[in-house]
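User: Need the bound-state model for zinc ion:
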Amino acid sequence: MGLAAPALLFGACTTKVEESATVESGLMIPMVGSLDLSQIRIVDTHVHPPRPVTLSESYKMWNSSFVDAMIPAYEYEGKAALREKLDSTFMQQIYNMPRQTGYNNYIARVYDVAPEISAFDGVVRAGIDRGFTNYITEILDREKISSMVLEKRDTVPERPDGPIPDGRFVWSSPIVDLIQPQWAIERGLTSIEAVSRAIADHLAACVANGCSGFKSSVAYYRPLSVNMVDKVTAHAALQLLLENPPTLFVAGRPNIPDYQETELKTAFRNYQDFLLRHIFIKAGELNTPMIIHTAVGLHPALRFEFNNPTELHRVFLDDDIKRVETKFVLIHTGYPYHQFVAAMLSQFPNVYTDLSFYSKFPGVLEETLRGFLALAPSQKIMHGSDSNNVPEEIGYCAWNVRHVLAKVLNDYHQNYGWSQRDCEVMANNVLHENAERVFEI
Ligand SMILES: [Zn+2]
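Assistant: Bound-state model below.
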């Protein structure tokens, strides 16, 4: 299967292991000295609920939203032809990403099949047929994944049901719906005090039912910066929004308005800034971390100016947020702003990051992990997958992080003078201890 070259890449192996038949047969072992990272358990900090679909079915589900972002909104002759062309162009792009090479080779090593998508789909289909929960349990056991933080799809403040075995997850709750005017309208709330109270009650209900984190994905449609807005301004903003129902919405998000008029744009921003700050403060009071999406990649609709994490610096220095010591987990490494995230990890004791999504790309995983470990305490960095639909992604990301971490830690051990014990502490922190502490697992 042409595995000699990848095995050499993993300078992680000791001479003894390099000489052993196990490496040549494709069982690459992530060693640092005599420490075997494949024996250390993993907590995955960011997983979306799996669905019983194959990888190519999952890609098809995503593809139309990529295509939508690249097609003019107005009607014109040739629009259908462009859509058809982009459909196959985006699909090719997905299959040609390094992530796919990693997936194919991982599945080939684990299941002894050909390193190609049809074999990957066959493995997933067979797993689903054995029973989806059993299949997920096999993957978690195989990669020694003890637990995960599962992001709920809806905002109902209850522990989600689903195929993941009960003892193997905690859950987080999305907050973006709460700050849309629609949420207030549906509840008949017409004052900013009433909305603030209802949001506080909702967050408290989540925590009472075991919620381990609040997830903000605002960077999909607005900047991460949050301005200080007083209650009178926020209340006036709500009145204006209630009087002017939106006619346009963010693509793919039918409950998020896309106002065009300057006055309504400003009101929408003020209303959301007031409520976001309120949520950050409540999260601190409830001792529940804020999980914040910050990263650009893959999806053409993700904008750099919305995902710039330097905008959060002012949030971390907000007196009311300092007082309640809200924890912030900037997920997906902040890429390509990961160096700024590394700087903030070193500055703020309440700021963390995870490697999710980019742990599917070994080259970026190495770059981001190196950048974080180079400056920040290893207590600030957590493993995550951002697995979507297909649970083999959870397994591949776990495999990947152990091998890339071994490669990075070998540099510390062999070239920087770190002891094996020093490296073991870093590995345990990144692979499970930080997540267990931050999310109280
Ligand atoms: Zn995600």
